[in-house]
Structure formats: C-alpha cells, structure tokens
Task: structure prediction
Amino acid sequence: MTGVHAVRWHVPASRATVGVTRHRVTAMLRSWGVYVDEDTASTVELVVSELVTNAVVHAGGVSITIGLSAVAGEMRIEVMDGSDVAPSSRTAGGGAESGRGLALVDALASGWGVEPTRRGKTVWATCVLPPAPRSAVRGEVLRRVVRAMRPRPYVIEVRDRAARFALRRGGERRWHAA
Result:
C-alpha cells in the first residue's frame, strides 16, 4: 500500500446495514492494495460490526455515515450518527445479549474514542494492519516497476506468489518469472 486512502459513505440506520458495511470495509481495504490476512479481516469486521450496531441500536436516526482510512500499517473506521450521547462501556450479565460491544472494541482495536460533532458524534477505532508477506511485496514492486517502464497499452497479469507476470500487447503474451 502506498499513500493515504480514505472514503466516506452513508448507510441507512438499520440492522441490515451491519453485515453489508462489515464486508465492504475489508473489500475496500483490499481494493486499495492493503494486505489483510484472515485474522486481521476477522478483527476488523468484528470492530466494524460493533461500532455500526451501536449506532443503529442506540443513536436512532435515519442514516449513519461510515468513514474508512488507511495509512502506514493502520486503518481507522469512523461511525458518525446524529445522537450527542456518548457510548459507555457496561458490564453485561452472563445471559445478556447486549452490553459487550465496546468491551470487544476495546480488546480488539489498537485504540478507540468518541468525538462530538455539530450534528451528533463520531465513534472511531483504529486497528493495526499486518505487514505484507514478502511475496506480496515483491509482486507489488514488480507491478510498479513494470508499470513505470512499459509503454501503454500493456496489461500485467500476476499469476501466483512466485510473482510470474505476463506482458500483453495486442494478442501477444509473454510470461516472465521473477
């Protein structure tokens, strides 16, 4: 991943939003070229689920705004809603179905907090992203080098972790191994 990536989008304040947002966040990180292994994806998805669920259940309102950013090994998720009441951790009873959300966020995220806004509040959490494995880094470096050197309209296809790639121009395809 290079640079800073950030996006915001609005979603309806409904329980159906939770699952869609959870999967959209990890898909967005991967589309930016951020390496996300399965453990990290599970952690990020759980943190996102808890923050969005809190906004849907406790904040009321018609819609919420989701913010996602990633830079230098860390991602930040923001959930903005129209309520000015800050969330608070509470102790859930043994059989309770709710009350553990912020405790989970506190345990899984590298940091979290609440910021008041003109129209409510923003609840945010950050998660550390793992470094990409060497093969993924090598593949990304190869893509950048070839992209910088090639005249347009070449197309690069990365085939496997050994970083074999093809340069295509017209109908011609040549495979190269790294």
Observations:
- Strands lie at 5-12, 63-71, 74-81, 111-117, 120-128, 155-158, 165-169, 172-176.
- Residues 134-176 form one domain.
- The longest helix spans residues 38-58.
- Residues 161-169 have pLDDT under 50 and may be disordered.
